[in-house]
Structures are given as C-alpha cells and as structure tokens.
Amino acid sequence: MSDPARPGLFARLKAGLARTAASLSGAVGQALARGRLDQETLDRLEESLIAADLGVATAAAVVAGLKAERFGAEATPAEIRAALALRIAAILAPHVRPLTPDPARKPHVILVAGVNGTGKTTTIGKLAARFRAEGRVVVIAAGDTFRAAAIEQLKIWSDRAGATLVAGAVGADPAGVAFEALTRATASRADVLIIDTAGRLQNKTALMEELAKIVRVVKRIEPSAPHDIVLVLDATTGQNAIQQVEVFRDVATVSGLVMTKFDGTARGGVLVAIADKFKLPIHAIGVGEAIEDLQPFDADAFARALTGAD
Ligand SMILES: Nc1nc2c(ncn2[C@@H]2O[C@H](COP(=O)(O)OP(=O)(O)OP(=O)(O)O)[C@@H](O)[C@H]2O)c(=O)[nH]1
Ligand SMILES: [Mg+2]
Questions:
Q1: Ligand 1 within 6 A of 114 CB?
Q2: What CATH number is attached to the domain comprising 119?
Q3: Does ligand 1 lie within 6 Å of residue 264's CB atom?
Q4: N or C: less crowded end of the chain, CB within 10 Å?
C-alpha cells in the first residue's frame, strides 16, 4: 500500500481484471470491424458481454442503452469501451458500500459466510489488517472448527494483522466459539469482531442450522448483532456465484458481498450480473492473495478495468 515498489490501487485492479478485460476488449475490437455501431455490431457486443458472465438480462440492458445512445454512429473501440464502462458503472454505483465498523458499537460484529474455498478466511485476514491499520482493536472468532488447518490458517492471518484470535478445539461448537469471542470482545471493548465460518455446502440444512445458531447465540449477548453478514463469492465460479447468493439469502439475511479472485478469471462480469439482479451492497473485491489485494469496491474503477477503458 505505502510501498512505492507496489503499483497503485487502480493499476492492481487493472492487472487483476486483465483477463476479463482482454476478452471483452478483443470482442469490442472485432465487433467494431466496420467502424460503426450497427445492429450486427451490437449483437456481437451483447454476445461478448454474456461470455464475460454479465448475464443475459444485464447484457441486453447495457447494449440497449448503447443503442439508444449512438446507433449508427461512427465509433472507435476506445469510444465503445468508454461508453460500456459508463453504463456498467451506472449499474454498479447504487450498490457500492464500504464495510465500515460503527464506532458506537463495541464491538461491531461481522459474520462472514460463503461456500468452501471462496476466500472467506483470506478476506477476514485482509479486513482485519485494514481495520488494524485504521487503529481499531480487532478480535477474530475461528468459527470454522472442522479442520485444525483452518484454525492454523486464521492464526497466521490474525498474528500478521495484529488481531486477537479466539479459537476452540477442533470439532468444538462454532456457535460456542462465537459466543466466547463476543463475550471477550465486549469485555475488552474491542472495535470489531469478525466471525469466520465453515463453508461446506453439501447439505444446505446443516449449513442453515449452523449459521442460524451462530446468529441466535450472538443475539443473546447483543440483540443488534451481527451488524453485517457478509457473503464471500469467488469470481472464477461465474454463474454459480448467482446460485450461491440465492442459497445464502435463504439461510441468513445477507447484508453485503465481497467477491474474490478477479485476478484468476475472464468471468469477472458476474459481479455486474449479481449487482443488477440482487441489489445487494458490494463491499470489496479481491484481486490477489496478498494482504493489500482486498480493495474497497469502486464502481467506476471496476467498470473501467473490466472493459479495458482508459
Ligand atoms: N488469486 C486469488 N486467490 C485468492 C483470493 N482470495 C483468496 N484466494 C485464495 O483462495 C484460496 C482459498 O481461500 P480461503 O480464504 O482459505 O477460502 P475459505 O472460503 O476460507 O475456504 P474454506 O475455509 O475451505 O471454506 C486460498 O489459496 C487463498 O489464498 C484472491 O482475491 N485472488
Ligand atoms: Mg476458511
């Protein structure tokens, strides 16, 4: 972040989204072979947006907007990329909401959920580091008690971030760990408590019961908590991420989203489809595995990086 050898935020975002941008940008160039925005060009653009996982409905809306704006006009690929970026930013902008702990809450409780491997634990480590850098006292609850390695991984991240980890034994009741962590965080007047959870989803009922139990137990101590229930999604799963939002919305009141692994996919457009469909706040995105690779979500920068606009 402050290391001058590291590229700036936008450069990292752009590098992260390079694969999606390259495929979209190439398609824009091809679609515009005749140099004007005729129906065939618009149809090809729509196909390339769908291929980038924007979803059929969102791709159609974006292209319809572009058509209304400049049908038949001469256009260069750069102009079309810029126009696309504006339309995509407009879809995303109403859903930008940074994850900011309320200082009146001691602690502000953030429950983190999501299927196996989406990046929950890594995201918690990165969030903890950011909150610590802002001077907040952070407690993390190791609510994934199924694997010793999961607790170890969280220990490494919390040590690195300077947070306090509350963990139980392997196999302990996750709700019990959350209860103890909230009790301790409250007693020590910590600013933030972040609760990690297990991501197995082979059995929706078990998952639902476990998350609901954590929420219930937390509310016994602080009825207003959890203040955020953040769903972590993996951009590389493309359209599957949409189903995951549907499942988790049934399980708990998801209050916002983090999407990870934009650096590993050409399907980054799925976030636009999700924002358009579910209207859920988007807190942050992951563009790599390092601690500084969790960025606050910026609709304009994201749309420009996604479309390869300058
Ligand atoms: N490239 C890339 N990798 C990421 C990103 N976020 C997380 N990862 C990697 O994804 C893998 C899984 O991340 P975890 O944080 O363990 O995921 P999880 O959701 O906690 O997984 P479970 O606890 O097994 O459910 C790790 O190797 C992370 O380093 C990202 O933004 N970009
Ligand atoms: Mg984990």
A1: yes
A2: 3.40.50.300
A3: yes
A4: C
The answer on 139 and 33 residing in a single domain is no
Contacts from 217-220 at CB under 8 Å and sequence distance 24+? Answer: 217/175, 217/176, 217/178, 217/179, 218/109, 218/111, 218/178, 218/179, 218/182, 220/179
Model-wide pTM > 0.85: yes
CA of 206 to the centre of ligand 1 (A): 22
- Ligand 1 atom at shortest distance from the alpha carbon of 115: 25
Atom of ligand 1 nearest to the CA of 122: 15
Of all residues in the chain, what percent carry a pLDDT higher than 90?
Answer: 66
Q: Residue 202: what pLDDT?
A: 55
In a domain, 4, yes or no: no
Phi, psi of 238 (to 5 degrees): 55, -130
Residues 16-44 have pLDDT tens digits of: 888 888 878 777 788 777 788 899 889 98
Domain range for 61:
9-95
Which of 95, 121, 139 terminates a domain? The answer is 95
CA of 289 to the centre of ligand 1 (A): 7
Domain finish residue from 95, 127, 159: 95
